[in-house]
## 1
Amino acid sequence: VSDSDPLSEPVAQTPAIDIVKSSDATGTNGVGDTITYTYAVENTGDVTLTALSVTDPHSGLSAITCSPIAQGGTMAPGDTTSCTATYTVTQTDVDAGQIDNTGTATGTPPQGEDVSDSDPLSEPVAQAPAIDIVKSSDATGTNGVGDTITYTYAVENTGDVTLTGLSVTDPHEDLG
């Protein structure tokens, strides 16, 4: 004679993922310089995560590649992977004085909703605004009373940021 009594005990699951974003930016990067972003991802939960996804919505960013666990891969608890992407600094970035973006890691646990973590990063971009003006005229050195002299002002943006609200003034009286 035998008897059995199955018992199903729930086991608590705590899925979690962590991402830390960093870069090799120096704070002196200028237009055309390449910045490499690194995304350190770890399964900090107690269940295996599948469908690993590391994203960053920053426009102009290269594809994000991960190793040793690739995008779409599986991460056991405690597993880590390192992902990288590159970005070329634009004039808009220099004008803004910083580059802001956010990396996000997402994984799918065996049960329940996907888990994700985000890490924003703001990298300063050095700015060196400068302007140069050279004033010249068509005066011949033999001009007399009533002669008209034309002044020319050559203005150049010699800095590395876009300048707005340009104004050229001259305190000389009777300019017209």
## 2
Amino acid sequence: LDLLPGPRDRQGLPDRIRFWKSQIEEPNADRTFRVGLLYGPSGCGKSSLVKAGLLPRLSKRIDPIYVEATADDTEARLLRQLRRHGGPRQSTSSLAQAVSLIRRGRSISSDKVILVIDQFEQWLHANPLSPDLELVNALRQCDGGRIQCILMVRDDHFWMPVTRLLKLLEVSLDANNSSAIDLFDASHARKV
């Protein structure tokens, strides 16, 4: 955490971590997000921020599921990870069904599941957007109370595809579900 620049709270937690931690740990679905977006340029540290900074600091009642997106098997990777974490077993045929079961409290013993999909631009690049896509249907099941998702994406060429996807999901970006990560400035990079 010492490598992160910027303000910190009373416990020394950087604002970037505290923002996502508080949104994920919020039990009331009306006060948090269903699908969030973490974006920034390539190499700015989005993956490190989440894997080393955020996920290890989440409450034990939150079950994080982290996957790196690919062009063709992101859905299968997510479904495998959900099953590894005690989610719906083999009788569940699709990712959307599995996420729906979690949303209804019929799977996974934790209070909440957070899906984190890194390098989401890989999936966006290979999949022309359609409301019939399995991942779109799965993300529509996220309710904020039992299951949430954070999409991590490079912002250079993928802002419009992400915007189109969020429109399909009926999710608006605002101060509660999106955050930009920028490259370190030169002086902080020298310090690191």
## 3
Amino acid sequence: MPSQSTQVGAKVTFTAAPIGEGPFTYQWKTNGVEITGATSSTYTIASVTMSDVAAYTVVVDNAACEPVESLPAYLVIRPALHISLAPPNVTLTWTGNFQLQSADSMSATFTDVTGVVTGPYTTPITGERKFFRLRVP
């Protein structure tokens, strides 16, 4: 079961594909805790939130052998940074808590924009180029 990377609000599905004689039973877990009602071969999160970032496993069982728990698959949030130009300003927006960083070039060292972990962020457009990125705080 592979790890998945997605954006806040997206749908994500984890799938178990056991090999052997069925029928199988399933119990999904997040960070080691059973997810109530998650007992099918797939586990779907209809709209991912930051609180869904976790390690997911599934315990598969059948009558022929002992239950087996999968290796963890991790759900990672990949932020989307949106840029709006409205001279004399530029506004950056994103969903979730991510530290905004800036640099003067792509090869320069990015530094935190102090105190900015949620959008929107508005800054004046100047003659100098600025590069922005988000990181997990």
## 4
Amino acid sequence: GRDVADFPKMLPSDVRFSGLIDYDRSKNYRFLISSQNNQIYLFDKKGNNLSEWGPKKIEKEIIRSPQHFKMGGKDYFIVFLADGAVQVFNRKGDLLNIFHTKEKKVFSGNFYLESGMSSTTTYLYYISKEGVVVKQNMKGEILTTNNILRGKNSEFIMERIVNSDKFYLYRVDVDKIAVFNMEGTIIFEKQNSGSTNFNFQCIETVNNEVVFSFFDV
């Protein structure tokens, strides 16, 4: 419980999101932090801010934790903004591309990144609040969509499995809760007691079984 050497560190603004990065599994960790005033910091394992990130000031509201991903074996970062814009940065903090989500709308729940060798073969998956599952590459080109809408009051969310490369889609109606796989195929549907205010989680066990949790807030 003792403070580690060089810590604690104080930031000029309150933290909103944070993440731990290990580029090549060498334990040479980086701390990716975004603040309430939409600045992004990248710290080394001693808590020193890397000068290239400065910090990086974003003009719009950051609505999700920025995430590191691989593309063509190189390191990149993706940032989601409140106006539907998606910004992609390289490891040095250079802005490489800006594109928008479908219809410039904020999507529901989490997102999933499938790494490829280039910006055209690296894919972003998300689900809109209208139930449209979108596959989009890092150039912003929308490749496929799949609508899992049931009724006008259906609610949707995407969640990744903890520590895994899989994700699932949830559709909540007053009478039913349905779970879909990555391809948009329904896995199961259960009776709902009437609530639509749920927290979801999916965990893969050591036996490769997936356990789904539905918590009625």
